[in-house]
Design brief:
The complex is a heterodimer. Chain A is an alpha/beta fold. Chain A has 27 helices and 17 strands. In chain A, helix 7 (156-165) links the parallel strand 5 (145-150) and strand 6. The longest helix of chain A is centred in the last third of the chain and has 34 residues, at 555-588. Chain B is mainly alpha-helical. In chain B, 70% of the residues lie in helices and 0% in strands. The N and C termini of chain B lie far apart (45 Å). Classes of the chains: A alpha/beta, B mainly alpha.
């Protein structure tokens, strides 16, 4: 009679087995939850996901598809019992009955589609448990045959395919699946069948599995040494996942929490042994969720446009922060042509001065806290300082680089009214505009009716000025701006056929909770930016218009180059997250709207309540902007000490001009200061 | 990547104290209590351990 064996891990199994190798001829292994683990708590989630895919393809409601599947399965199981077998059914039989029930048996491509989808989704939820793989290697080294035994509705060949996709099919000489024989392990009959087929004595076989009844008790009853693999941590993890899935039914943040828990489990299973540095982890755990949900929202909107009969014909990812989004888009398999375009606020605004410079346009240069008056205007609009400087003195400007704080300054008004000034501006603007126009023609901007611009945000300057500069052309397309965050502080009117939307944050929605990206814009720009310099102009080369990038010798560019390796690490982390995000999304079917509340909470944690490590590492990054200035913005200034609390007004001013205000409280423990400041700040800002 | 419901609840309080609106990423007090209650029940009852003892007391 076999021993009663309950072992807690694969090492214990190996220790028990090692001295008995002489008498054991074959090892039989349960597959699911023994050799292969799942990223999701409930395997039925795969079946639901398949039903959703069938629903999308056929137009039949997912609930109806699910019911048809359940009915087909129940009938087959009942038939098997009537025929004297166990309560089993196999996928191939079920599939044909299921398609019949849906009334779609004439569609010859549907059954292969369903089968393929089921396999793809099932494979995406599975991973080989690390200790199990080590055990398989050890058994193979001992020259002992291994077979797979599974109570499963998938056919044997489908299970083999899953094992092949997970890279372990070669360990097994044969796969016994209850669906093939209509006999289960839980009745002991599958064990008997296996012994009969293999022609072995029961005492020569050891079976290992995670089910105390099917894998131990029933194996032992047939004389096979059954081992119950009792992995407590794994059982608790599955319990937690099941609870998460149940809570997700409540909506709100719970869906996002369930989703990202699955993503984390999936990522952890594949990556936990690799040492990852801080920036990779920050990209994976903080920026990854935010950018992934943005990309998911973008895909949904593109599909919606297509369904509405107004498909976007081309996607333009705007330099430099559209760089990462373009890389993420390439992995989606969407077929809309996409291109990374070298546009910057600098080249767009320069072209917009072809008809002269208005006061409104000039004021844009003064939004920068480090503005240098007319010198900043020249930098922002690419105007010749040398030609304008003598004209400025005519109107009382002694120092061309002196900041202008009074936006009603009479000197500025007179300067802009001066026809000589406007003539110089127009001539330069027309040159800029002609080159930009040729560049846009080159990238096919005017060849389509519907174009989407994708960028990080914030004011939609590029979109606004494109319309302003070329909106009069009859072939100017209908523009859709999709932004990570859209905060139109500078301009309100974008003109007809020119729509903008912030996917993660749109200030027009008036939801204070979602405005968190605007609290620390710089980190999102850093995470998404290209390693190349900003575009400052265009020039002609061999008959083509090519972008002129800022020189690597510029002080801000030098600082940026030093940070490029850190940004690259962050982007690798984001790409890593995106890979797992897509797999879990396909399985769970959550929309971006369902995930957003949790992502806002996640970003609130990262921006308002950063850890000490986050503050130290992220403040190494330097931030530059593409509005013509050469300044570098420090992400955090000197931390706030207890003494600073005695001078609240001065402290408030310091906090107001800081790029990352909440990082200044790093010396005050517990996060209470961050919380108090958050409350005060939310009171103060316009909601 | 996974933030505890209690933390999210606390973060959302800042909105409640300022604008009176904090539902966006608050888990909701009732749902949060259910969550922690169920976690506590799972920890105390420990079904995994009960399963183990059941296996241990089996005759075969």
């Amino acid at each position: 009679m076999p021993e009663k064996l309950i072992l807690r891990d694969w090492l214990q199994v190996r220790t028990w087995l090692a001295p008995r190798l002489g008498t054991v001829r074959m090892i039989s292994l349960d597959i699911f939850d023994t050799v292969l683990g799942r990223y999701v708590g409930d395997p039925a989630e795969v079946q639901h996901a398949v039903c959703r895919a069938v629903s999308v393809r056929t137009g039949i409601a997912a609930e109806t598809v699910w019911r048809a599947r359940q009915q087909a399965e129940q009938v087959l199981r009942a038939e098997a019992v009537q025929a004297g077998f166990d309560h089993e059914c196999c996928y191939s039989d079920m599939l044909s009955r299921w398609v019949e029930r849906l009334g779609l048996e004439t569609d010859a491509t549907l059954a292969p589609f369903i089968r393929q989808t089921e396999l793809d989704l099932e494979a995406a939820t599975l991973h080989v448990k690390r200790d199990a793989q080590v055990f398989l290697d050890w058994v193979r080294e001992q020259g002992i045959e291994i077979i797979a035994m599974s109570d499963m509705y998938l056919d044997g060949d489908m299970l083999c395919e899953l094992l092949r996709r997970r890279g372990i099919v070669d360990y097994f000489t044969f796969v016994y699946v209850s669906a093939d024989f209509k006999l289960g392990k839980y009745s002991g009959r599958l064990f008997e069948k296996m012994l009969q087929v293999k022609g072995l004595g029961a005492q020569q076989v050891v079976h290992i599995g995670d089910n105390p009844i099917a894998d131990r008790r029933m194996a032992c009853r047939t004389g096979i040494q059954g081992i119950w693999l009792y992995e407590k941590a794994e059982l608790r993890r599955r319990e937690r996942q099941t609870l998460s899935a149940q809570m997700a039914q409540r909506g709100g943040i719970w869906q996002g929490r369930h989703f990202f828990e699955c993503v984390e489990t999936r990522s952890h299973q594949q990556d936990s042994l690799k040492p990852r540095d801080f920036f990779f982890r920050y990209g994976r755990d903080v920026l990854g969720p935010a950018f992934s949900v943005f990309m998911h929202g973008l895909q949904e909107r593109l599909q919606r446009q297509m369904a509405a009969g107004k498909p976007v014909e081309k996607l333009l990812f705007v330099a430099r922060d559209g760089f990462l989004f373009e890389r993420l888009y390439r992995t989606t398999g969407m077929t809309i042509p996409a291109e990374y375009v070298y546009l910057s606020r600098r080249v767009i605004t320069a072209a917009a001065t072809a008809e002269g410079l208005s006061r409104e346009q000039a004021l844009v240069a003064f939004y920068n806290p480090k503005q240098q008056g007319l010198a900043s205007v020249c930098k922002v609009y690419g105007l010749p300082e040398a030609a304008l400087q003598p004209l400025a003195t005519r109107h009382g400007f002694v120092d061309f680089s002196a900041p202008i704080h009074d936006w009603e300054d009479v000197r500025l008004h007179n300067f802009l009214q001066d026809q000589d000034v406007q003539a110089i501006i127009r001539a330069t603007g027309q040159q800029h505009r002609a080159l930009l126009q040729r560049y846009l023609e080159q990238v096919g901007f005017f060849d389509h009716q519907h174009i989407a611009l994708v960028d990080i945000g914030w004011n939609g300057t590029v979109q606004k000025f494109l319309k302003q500069a070329f909106g009069m052309r009859p072939d100017f397309p209908q523009l859709h701006g999709y932004y990570f965050a859209f905060v139109p502080k500078l301009y309100a009117d974008f003109g007809a056929d020119n729509t903008c939307e912030g996917i993660v944050h749109d200030s027009r929605r008036g939801n204070a909770c979602e405005r968190i990206p605007a609290e620390f814009e710089e980190i999102f720009e850093q995470g998404a930016r290209s390693h190349e310099a900003t575009t400052i102009a265009y020039c002609e080369q061999a008959g083509r218009v090519v972008p002129v990038l800022k020189a690597d010798t510029a002080a801000d560019r030098q600082a940026e180059i030093l940070c490029n390796p850190l940004v690259a690490q962050m982007q690798q982390g984001i790409l890593h997250h995106w890979e797992h995000f897509r797999a879990v999304q396909r399985l769970t079917g959550y929309s971006s709207q369902q995930l957003l509340p949790y992502v806002h909470g996640l970003l609130e944690r990262a921006v308002v309540y950063p850890t000490t490590e986050e503050i130290h590492e992220l403040t190494q990054l330097v931030h530059t902007e593409d509005f013509g200035h050469d300044h570098v913005l420090a992400l955090a200034n000197q931390a706030v000490g207890w003494g600073d609390l005695l001078r609240p007004r001065r402290l408030w001013r310091r906090l107001e001009v800081s790029a990352w205000r909440y990082a200044l409280f790093e010396k005050i423990p517990t996060g209470m200061a961050n919380f108090a400041f958050r409350v005060a700040y939310l009171h103060a800002v316009k909601k | 990547m996974v933030v505890s419901p209690l933390k999210l609840f606390a973060y959302a309080l800042a909105f409640r104290f300022s604008s009176g609106r904090g539902r966006c990423f608050s888990p909701g007090i009732k749902a949060m209590l259910i969550w922690y209650g169920t976690r506590l029940r799972l920890a105390v009852l420990d079904r995994a351990a009960a399963k183990w003892w059941r296996g241990w007391f089996e005759s075969v």
